[in-house]
Structure formats: structure tokens, C-alpha cells
Specification:
Shape: elongated
Distance between the termini: 18 Å
Largest sheet: none
CATH architecture of the largest domain: Orthogonal Bundle
Number of domains: 2
Order of helices and strands: HHHHHHHHHHH
Radius of gyration: 18 Å
Strand content: under 5%
Oligomer: single chain
Structural class: mainly alpha
Length: about 210
């Protein structure tokens, strides 16, 4: 069971008005910085990533700078992000490919980005939508949880969730929808102890209706 298209339109309108400042919360000044920050954000909070990249990006503004740091120094800097050895290895491999194949520039297509080590579909979607204006819905844990709870989709994995969201939401609103779902997930529809009493869309939410019936 899903909410109707008319209900979906109202939900998106309410969330858009509730979070008018919804935007990427990873600090960056270039596509390269966004790429590295998003790789670091895997299983890590944006707040912690921003603390780490504040120091990292003072030392490294491009792939050559990262490569100059080397594995030992890089892994030491990004240690607070967790899985630092794997992330450092992937970042160094990605930077080498950027230098060798892309003239040190971040590629602008999802197809090219997902060939880089440590870059999955979610990361690629974030980079192209944030940095290059390409409509995309990056499905992270917040987007997956929120959209399935509300009843916008009813899927078991992020791939099917992304596909269904792209079907149901207007392409021109994909990127903004991604951000408002994340904001809602972080501020109200939390994984544990969701703040249903403060939720502006609870009258539409299928999960909330189940809880009320119980």
C-alpha cells in the first residue's frame, strides 16, 4: 500500500516548506572536495566528516595534493571517519585515476564516477546533483527510511527505492526531494524514537497510521 499521487504532492509541498534551507551539509568548495567528503561520509556523520575535511582540505585541494600526502599521512588525518584504511586506499586510487584519466578533474557523469574506487551510485548521485546540476535522488539511510515509512515507496533495498522514487517524483524535483527527505530523517523521522508528535506530515504517513491503530 502506498500514499496516492495527490497525497505525495502534498507531502512534498509540506516538507519543502518545512525545510526551505534543505541542502548538502557536507562542507565543500569544489567538485573534488565534495567527492572526497562523500567518500568519507560512508557510515559516518556529516558533522564528523566536516571536522576532518576542515583540516584535510587545508593541506589538499586537488588529487595531486592527496597523492603527495601518501597512505600513512592520509589515513592518520581521516582516522576519525572510521574505516580509515579502506577509505584512504580508495581515495588514493581514485585520485590517481583522476590524474591519469581525467586531467585531475572530477568526471561529470554517474557512469564515469561509479568506476572510481569507493564511489557507489549514492556517492555519484550526490556529486552530479550537487556540483553539476544533474537531477538525481541519492538514497542514503535517511531517504530509504523516510520514504518507506511514509508510504511513498514500499521497497526492500536502496536500488529499488531509488528507481521507484524516480518514477513517482517529478525529475525537476529529484535533487530537492533528496535533501528534504534527509533533513526530515535527521530532524524528525529518526531511526530510533521518531518525533511523530512534531511531524508535519503524520496525517499522511502510513507507518504513523499503523501505530495509531495499535
Amino acid at each position: 500500500m502506498l500514499i496516492t499521487d495527490e497525497e505525495l504532492k502534498e507531502v512534498l509541498d509540506i516538507l519543502n516548506k518545512t525545510y526551505p534551507d534543505a541542502r548538502p551539509e557536507l562542507d565543500h568548495t569544489s567538485p573534488f572536495e565534495m567527492l572526497i567528503a562523500t567518500i568519507l561520509s560512508a557510515q559516518c556523520t556529516d558533522v564528523r566528516v566536516n571536522m576532518v575535511t576542515k583540516d584535510l582540505f587545508k593541506l589538499a585541494q586537488g588529487p595531486e595534493d592527496i597523492l603527495a600526502l601518501g597512505f600513512g599521512r592520509l589515513s592518520e588525518i581521516i582516522r576519525p571517519c572510521g574505516f580509515y584504511n579502506t577509505k584512504a586506499s580508495n581515495i588514493l586510487k581514485t585520485c590517481q585515476l583522476l590524474v591519469d584519466n581525467y586531467k585531475s578533474e572530477v568526471p561529470k557523469t554517474i557512469e564515469e564516477l561509479i568506476t572510481l574506487p569507493g564511489v557507489g551510485k549514492k556517492t555519484a548521485n550526490v556529486v552530479v546533483s550537487t556540483c553539476f546540476g544533474v537531477p538525481a535522488i541519492a538514497v542514503d539511510t535517511h531517504v530509504f527510511r523516510v520514504t518507506n515509512r511514509i508510504g511513498i515507496v514500499d521497497e526492500k533495498n536502496v536500488e529499488d527505492t531509488e528507481e521507484k522514487l524516480m518514477e513517482r517524483i517529478d525529475r525537476n524535483f529529484w535533487t530537492k526531494a533528496h535533501h528534504i527527505f534527509i533533513f526530515h530523517g535527521r530532524r524528525t523521522c529518526k531511526a530510533r524514537n521518531p518525533q511523530c508528535q512534531n511531524c508535519p506530515i503524520r496525517s499522511f504517513c502510513l507507518e504513523y497510521k499503523k501505530l495509531v491503530q495499535v
